Inverse folding.
């Protein structure tokens, strides 16, 4: 199967799994929020923030390095994975102890600390499943990833409903939900262990510590960037918990979880694009340039309408999905809506920098984003309350975007941003205007509004000649290998 066909196949898997799994993920968050209430949901969000940051510290870029190295030479898969596995178990064991100690020091009840320990085990199970699933990514067999993503969410939703609800066998909904995460994540790990062992290669613990340490050193810039990036996504929660308490964290998290759900889209799309970017980065620069510009155009066309839709529907979505005690989250979501464009573009640029072996650009942009976000939080939260955390997030993403544009020029890749963005941005603005006359109040109103909004946007793309029927036909032909030519740079920057 050709490289283009692999990308097309994996994009199809990703879209299908993200469409179903994304909805399930959001339902899980809604269920947890409503079962726990504002204060307990704030504690749960705080635990998630701690464990997810520590997961990235344990990973430290190793899984992305697996994809890049195995994609270059698949015959070394067993050797690479064996040594990575040894290193991964050492790092994850250390992180488990650290999470336990951090939870003991920061959480003020035994129940919360026990929940933190359970979630630490759950997150580390996810980490090891990601290590194994990276082999599927490197071989561009992402159907396994797509299937497991959806199956995991179904199991987690069912267990969270059972163990976190009134019929729970646990004396605390928080503990029940955390156990649900643990069981679902362990099943996910078992699935990928069996797939890799039976389908690709049997992995045994390696003993080449020099090679393992060399991989770790190469992963440091990527890993540091990922840790800082994840910490940036959680810094608002951490600062709010100290300055305003669990209730403010719960309100902010209700809005931010919506944005995080949308953030899964660019992340998932980058998974099949990254192996292709890595291959092209080692070859023809012109082909890489064209492929990146075409990918960037697709990201812009997705990000701008989602930004407009989230902004205009913020209050309606919060009122629809959350209890009355979360009502203040609507104003926060309206501010956070503008971070969606940055999250999409910044994600693609990050993977491009790694593919080009310019990890330091990724690291510097992540550092700038974190510093600006944290500083804005510290300044604004005392002035405007929880609203300051939303503005801090927006300032951080804007800083990342500006720095990434500067670094993009260093990679000798030129993008005509005005030409690329003005038409889809204007179309998105026009699609928001009907909401001034009619805002949805019920679930079915919101469904109708959503369908109308994105239908009008799609019509607008053709009406303003962002692309034509011929462009769609040519793109389909290219990805199904009916054309062998690489997309031109002019197509990507139009």
């Amino acid at each position: 199967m050709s490289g283009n066909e692999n990308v097309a196949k994996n994009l199809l898997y990703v879209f299908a799994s993200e469409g179903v799994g994304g909805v399930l993920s959001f339902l899980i968050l809604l269920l947890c929020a409503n079962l726990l209430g504002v204060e307990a949901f704030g504690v749960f969000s705080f635990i998630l923030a701690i464990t997810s940051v520590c997961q990235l510290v344990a990973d430290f870029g190793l899984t992305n390095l697996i994809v890049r190295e195995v994609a270059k030479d698949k015959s070394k898969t067993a050797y690479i994975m064996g040594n990575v596995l040894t290193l991964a178990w050492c790092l994850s064991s250390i992180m488990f102890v650290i999470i336990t100690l951090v939870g003991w020091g920061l959480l003020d009840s035994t129940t919360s600390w026990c929940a933190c320990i359970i979630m630490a085990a759950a997150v580390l199970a996810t980490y090891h499943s990601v290590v194994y699933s990276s082999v599927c990514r490197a071989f561009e067999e992402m159907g396994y990833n797509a299937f497991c993503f959806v199956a995991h969410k179904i199991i987690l939703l069912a267990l969270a409903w059972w163990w976190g609800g009134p019929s729970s066998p646990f004396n605390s909904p928080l503990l029940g939900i955390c156990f649900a995460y643990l069981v679902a994540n362990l099943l996910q790990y078992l699935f990928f262990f069996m797939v890799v062992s039976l389908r690709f290669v049997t992995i045994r613990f390696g003993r080449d510590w020099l090679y393992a340490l060399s991989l770790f050193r190469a992963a440091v810039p990527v890993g540091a960037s990922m840790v800082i990036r994840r910490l940036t996504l959680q810094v608002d929660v951490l600062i709010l918990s100290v300055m305003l308490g669990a209730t403010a964290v719960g309100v902010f998290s209700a809005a931010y979880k919506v944005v995080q759900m949308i953030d899964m889209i660019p992340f998932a799309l980058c998974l099949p694009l990254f192996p292709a970017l890595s291959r092209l980065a080692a070859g023809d620069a012109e082909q890489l340039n064209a492929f990146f510009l075409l990918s960037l155009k697709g990201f812009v066309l997705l990000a701008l309408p989602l930004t407009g839709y989230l902004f205009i529907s913020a209050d309606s979505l919060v009122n629809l999905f959350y209890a009355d005690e979360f009502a203040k989250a609507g104003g926060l979501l309206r501010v956070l809506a503008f971070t969606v464009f940055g999250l999409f573009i910044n994600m693609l640029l990050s993977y491009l920098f790694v593919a080009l072996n310019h990890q330091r650009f990724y690291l510097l942009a992540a550092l700038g984003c974190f510093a600006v976000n944290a500083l804005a939080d510290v300044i604004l939260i005392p002035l405007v309350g929880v609203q300051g955390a939303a503005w801090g997030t927006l300032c951080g993403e804007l800083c990342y975007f500006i720095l990434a544009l500067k670094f993009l020029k260093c990679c000798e890749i030129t993008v005509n941003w005005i030409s690329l963005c003005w038409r889809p941005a204007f179309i998105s603005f026009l699609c928001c205007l009907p909401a001034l006359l009619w805002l949805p109040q019920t679930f079915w109103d919101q469904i109708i509004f959503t369908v109308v909004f994105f239908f009008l946007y799609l019509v607008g793309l053709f009406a303003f000649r962002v692309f034509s029927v011929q462009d769609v036909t040519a793109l389909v032909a290219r990805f199904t290998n009916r054309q062998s030519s690489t997309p031109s740079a002019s197509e990507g920057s139009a």
Remarks:
- Confidence is low (pLDDT under 50) at residues 482-494.
- The first helix runs from residue 3 to 59.
- Residues 33 and 462 are 40 Å apart (CA to CA).
- Residues 36-207 form one domain.
